[in-house]
Design a protein that fits this description.
Order of helices and strands: HEEEEHEHEEHH
Shape: globular
Structural class: alpha+beta
Largest sheet: 4 strands, mixed
Strand content: 15-25%
Amino acid sequence: MTQSAADTEKSYKTFVKTIVDTNKVWGLAKDDTWATSSSAEFEDTEVILFWSDEAGAKACAEDDWADYKPESITVVEFLENWCVGMYSDALLVGANWSSDLTGKEIEPLEVALDVVQELKSQDKTLEFSQYDSQQEFEEQVIEAMEGEE
């Protein structure tokens, strides 16, 4: 059974809140390869899948991904390396997809901004390694998104 739009949105909001709470983002990895799927929304577009908990990732480790194992990264690594890199590579984030491989597909910079907003709402500040501050990261993401318009 596929998720309704409301369930998909709720699952995405849970993803953002949970990764900020735990400082962990989960994916499925085999060697240096992370689980990806073809976009259901955009032709010729790949989606890299991420979950807010190990159980969600583990639930999707079947069929083509049977040999993949849940692996976690920090939120800073997710924002700096994955979201920014995925934006450059024109990939999408698949957040908290269900075991039937349905879920929200979203631009990585939108995810980055949503995470930064959640960090602010929880009064949390992360130490970035490639940016002087969380604020500088946010400003550069906004600038990149505005440059697309």
